[in-house]
Amino acid sequence: MSITQLSAQEIVQYCPELSALLIDAVEGGASVSFLAPLAREAADAYWHGVSADVARGTRMVFIARVDGQMAGCVHLAIATQPNANHRAEIQKLLVHSAYRRRGLATRLMAAAEEAAQKLGRSLVVLDTEQDSHAERLYERLGYQRVGVIPEFARSSTGALHGTVLFYKQLGMG
Ligand SMILES: CC(C)(COP(=O)(O)OP(=O)(O)OC[C@H]1O[C@@H](n2cnc3c(N)ncnc32)[C@H](O)[C@@H]1OP(=O)(O)O)[C@@H](O)C(=O)NCCC(=O)NCCS
Fold this sequence. Notes:
By secondary structure, this protein is of the alpha+beta class. Helices cover 34% and strands 35% of the residues. The protein has helices at 8-13, 15-27, 40-56, 104-118, 133-140, and strands at 2-6, 59-66, 69-78, 87-95, 123-129, 144-154, 160-169. It is globular and about 40 Å long. Residues 25, 28, 30, 32, 93-95, 100-106, 128, 132-134, 136-137, 140 line the site of coenzyme A (COA).
């Protein structure tokens, strides 16, 4: 398994694989911004927007490959407000359903946190679906639970669910 950071150009190049990863998560019921069924064109358009963010320097994208196959990704969204230059947000942590429970998400999160530290971002925030596997994962990775907003978002099936807010302060030494 390898973890690599993608350039804006590589995101466009790998768009078919990245869209397949996103569609797999949405079809599996994950709450990751989209409703099912997610059309390939909509997924491609999303990744082109991500590529533009990476080109602007407001986002970093890391992927996991297993035997050469696209198996997972995570984004680090870098806050741009002058009063938030110590902060970053984890988004779109996705592991393909064929590669789960092998520690890929854990490795991807370590890569994103290391990148945040290198950028001098000492505070990482994220949110996730209440009672999801991801909620357990973040607790296990040392994220502090702030609270739950009831009925904040829809899962990909359309059902409203609570969203848990988390943060983690990274040691900068
Ligand atoms: C949540 C997700 C990213 C986890 O990826 P993963 O690579 O399987 O996670 P890991 O193997 O690193 O799991 C680490 C720990 O998280 C917890 N965990 C992860 N998946 C779990 C599951 N299905 N059931 C129970 N606990 C789980 C466990 O504590 C696990 O440790 P263990 O395997 O030693 O018990 C993956 O299930 C996924 O992509 N889901 C759909 C998309 C999604 O919801 N993303 C989160 C958006 S905020």
